[in-house]
Amino acid sequence: MAKPASRRRGAQALLAAVLAERDLRDRYGMGVDDIFTLRGLQVLDMLDRLVVRNAERSGLVQLSHVLAAESAGGDHPAAEYSRRHFTEARTLVRTALEAGIADGELRGDLDCGLLATQIVAVMEGLENQWLADPGQVDLMGVFHAYTRDLRERIRATP
């Protein structure tokens, strides 16, 4: 008979697998053939769509946040998933921003790595607030306002 700690680790690993499947479905459900080919402001369009999608599935969003917090110590079945998830998110945003600079769409003085980390942090933090108080935090409205303002700040001037 499996010990309770062993069962818990197995359950946590299963939940991480559920989130990995969610991420895979998101990649194909965003209306983009390959999200890693997004360029410039297209990445903000995709994130706006993702927030709409997330607003319809608070349970999965909550699961993601709980597992990320639990796995922060490193010795957790979901630790590798969480690291990969955040690394891929930052990489996706950074490479799209870099492509936008190369295309002349975005300002050339942007620190794309820093900006990518900030964008992911805003999205994650906003989701945390929304999960804690959904009646007071308008996930979609606040995020869309953020990306609208961000577009104006980072767009290259003609």
TrEMBL record:
The answer to whether keyword Transcription applies is: yes
Concerning Pfam families, the annotation shows: TetR_C_13
Record key words, sorted: Transcription, Transcription regulation
| Recorded coiled-coil stretches | none
**Transcription found in the keyword field:** yes
Q: Which residues form the Tetracyclin repressor-like C-terminal domain?
A: 67-126
Q: Which InterPro entries does the protein's record reference? A: Tet_transcr_reg_TetR-rel_C_sf, TetR_C
Q: What is this protein called?
A: Tetracyclin repressor-like C-terminal domain-containing protein
